[in-house]
Design brief:
Helix content is 49%, strand content 13%. The chain has 13 helices and 10 strands.
Amino acid sequence: MLEALGVSTGDEETYLALLKNPHCTMAVLAAEVGRSPAATRSAVARLEELGFVARTVTSPASLVATPPDAAVNALVVRRQEELAEARAAGARLAESFPRELQFRPDELVDIVLGVEAVQARFVQLSHGAREQICVLDRPPYVQAIGPANVSENDVLSRNVVVRAIYCPESFELPGAFDRAMAAVADGEQARVSNEVPMKLAVADGSHALMPLTNDGVVDAALVVRSPSVVAALVQLFELLWRQASPLPAWDGDPASATHEETVDTGLVALLATGLKDEAIARDLDVSVRTLRRRTSALLELLGARNRFQAGVQAARRGLI
């Protein structure tokens, strides 16, 4: 549980044993965890350094575990301060790096090989952004769809602008649309377009990450730092952004329901993304037949003859 804070599994087991046996001696703790006295002393010394353990002044000294909430919160604050110092040091190093060397031909493009390496480079690009990240989103993906994008949450918490253009195929994986809507709720600016030619991420208009191919697994990518190439990619993004439509959203809070509460607003939003019926059915966990029956009922409720008219009516009523 504490590995992310730099506490090893063995040290955590020692700490948990001490929580269960407060004020015990080093010998008793060693017997409890089943390790040698030397290994236990080393673990306790590391835990003392991290603020998880203290010693009494009695003779012989007994060990006291710091309450978990206080110990973890203090260590989190310390790690945050260390990260802030590391970021500042990185900025100073970048400023001291000779500018003429930054634009040597062999410094303008890197090739990244391997799925994990590509994913790590995207996280690095996200954490390094200070002003804005522009993303073109389309399959395939280097990681599974999860409930939250940790990298993006970190970026948004630092008031970095995140703009993303999704293609309809982006929402074909189960949970993808809900995840995109959660990102929008957190501050992401999102649009959808049928014309997303490739995957792309650009940070601060200076660094770009793009896969070498759009087919199969993303196991190779280019990191581009060439000012002219990155500027061209930014112009491409801005052109697509102007042509894209805002990502359809709806308010699912029953407390805010109006006279339109009988309208299947979730279905309206999914239809407006351009997803195929099969993908929408998977997202809603219903059969295609049930989906088409719900769609027909929706069109009748909106007084529309086809889906285009339904979209117009939904927009007029403020449903999307």
